[in-house]
Amino acid sequence: MTIWSIPLTGIRGKRPWDNDWKISYRHDTRMILEGDCLSLIPIPNFDGLSLQHYEYCGENLESKFSGKYDFEFLKPHLSTTYCEIVIDDEFWKPPFMPMYPFHNEVEKLQTVMAASGSLITALRLIGFNRFIAPCILKNSTLQKAKDCKKGAIQFFPHHPFHMPLPMLEESKARLSNKDFLWVSEATITLYQLIFTHDFTPTMTALSYYYHDMPQRAKMSLIWAAIEDLLKPKRTKSQGIRFGLRARGAMILGNNDEDIRKLFLQIGNLYGKRNEATHGRRFAWNKGIIPTPDNTKMKTDMLALRDSYQLLCKILIRIIDHGTLFTDSELLEFENEYKEKFPE
């Protein structure tokens, strides 16, 4: 049996050592479910996976980690960490996970990353998204760390410099029971998709949107994921751009007016994608601090955010569909668009 922990740390505002850091943002990762902050929230139908409340009280945990600098890496995040994903892999055995007990240590870590990554993605898709997951801990939770033996906790960082500033618009601090039920079902669906399909482009784009990396690279990753999900084909009469617009609009649109608007929006965002991937100026500013007259940068950053939200909306439809759309289903969407809106 092994206990794993994935801390969730808040991202809004500035870091705690800044004078103008907003204290109210400390609690962004406090999981409030139907008005209550529960100490433990099991994920329905996913044995061994749960969310656990945690609050750092200034304990010196350095000696509990196996690596010399592990705690120093984690420490800046602890003041905004109020929740951790906890995995008890004792439950990962037949019939739920028949092969897991026979995996080597690398394969077990990959399964832990897949399960926790599925839950993280589901939470972000429902709107509980003001957090990052800076690391994975093995052999203890944060809540139980002070009771561990010296050097017992193994530490796996997700990113060496994980101080991000993603652009978020649709966000919520509390979840309803309906939200949480969708999260639990989405977690299982995503977990299964990861192992039955090559879901790498999508999961990479969703993760790296929260990383401190060039905006041009983020835009390229997001659109690589969108193209991977929609699989547009070039024809004699129409190119990749039309397939993306038609398929995306038909998947997401609820009526003819929605579909027309989405077709135009996706086309505009694809144009920004081309700027990012083909070497033109994208998210460029006149200095380190953005200037008020730099409308081009503002437009580019909004296009990045809207592209990320487009990817999220497509993924939500796929989750509700239960599986990826097949080539024939996507082609049917495209043909249906041509019939509805003949040029």
Set out the fold topology.
Layout: E1 3-10, E2 32-33, E3 40-42, E4 49-53, H1 70-78, E5 81-88, H2 105-126, E6 131-132, E7 135-138, E8 154-157, E9 174-175, H3 177-196, H4 200-208, H5 215-230, H6 240-252, H7 256-277, H8 295-321, H9 327-340
Parallel strand pairs: 2-9
Antiparallel strand pairs: 1-5, 1-6, 1-7, 3-4, 4-5, 7-8
Detailed description of the structure:
This protein is 44% helix and 11% strand. With 343 residues, it is α+β, with helices and mostly antiparallel strands. It folds into 2 domains: 3-196, no CATH class; 215-340, no CATH class. Strands 1, 3, 4, 5, 6, 7 and 8 form a 7-stranded antiparallel β-sheet that branches. The protein has a two-stranded parallel sheet with strand order 2-9. A hairpin with a 6-residue loop joins β3 (40-42) and β4. α5 (215-230) runs parallel beside α8 (295-321), α6 packs across α7 (256-277) and α6 (240-252) crosses α9 (327-340).
Major sheet details: 7 strands, antiparallel
Order of helices and strands: EEEEHEHEEEEHHHHHHH
Mean pLDDT: 88
Tell me the Rg in angstroms.
Answer: 21 Å
* Count of separate DSSP helical elements: 9
Fraction of residues in helix: 40-55%
Beta-strand content: 5-15%
Tally of individual domains: 2
- Low-confidence runs of at least 5 consecutive residues: none
- According to DSSP, the number of beta strands is 9
